Structure prediction request, 179 residues.
Amino acid sequence: MKKIVSGVTIECIRGNIVEQPDLEAIVNAANAQLRSGGGVAGAIHRAAGPGLEKECRPLAPIKPGEAVLSGGHNLPNSSVIHCLGPVYGRDKPAAELLANCYRNALRLADEKGLASIGFPAISTGIFGYPVEEAATVACRAIAEMAPALKHVRTVRFVLFSEADLAVHRKALEELPEER
Ligand code: AR6
Prediction:
């Protein structure tokens, strides 16, 4: 499933975020300290190796909605963009903070001249954000940023489960058509 908005292809697939060798950047659903952890953060730090935590140490802590960029270390991607999503029910306004993650990640990738970026479903795991709401927020934020992007041409959602893939497909389909 793909949608093109202002020349930017937005697509969603089922897969593992650390197994996307054709993407220049992948996004981490990070913790404030930019340490390894469970879920996406654990998978990324394990695949990248200890150099990633070392590089990230001086960049931490980050606040909900913020994003920072690091190298990819042993990952097949040149860059990792670490976003701290909101903890649902605690960090407010949740939708704005989640949208900021997507906006800030895309801005960083574009400033770095990267053409492709992959996102997991930030905040929808341990942080408890309902996936339908999160998918709508994410798709809208990406579509709103698309006209401003000079380098980013591919944005890929990489979803772990078939159910999350279906939810993101639907959210992408529901984006307003380009006129
Ligand atoms: N590839 C793609 N998606 C994945 C992967 C993977 N390898 N692993 C999990 N998911 P989460 P959050 C899905 O919990 O809610 C960490 O401990 C997962 O099924 O990784 O933002 C950090 O240290 C879910 O749908 O991120 C933070 O403390 C989605 O990715 C905290 O969790 C996000 O799940 C961040 O929580």
User: Anything to note?
Assistant: Residues 94-111 form the longest helix (18 residues).
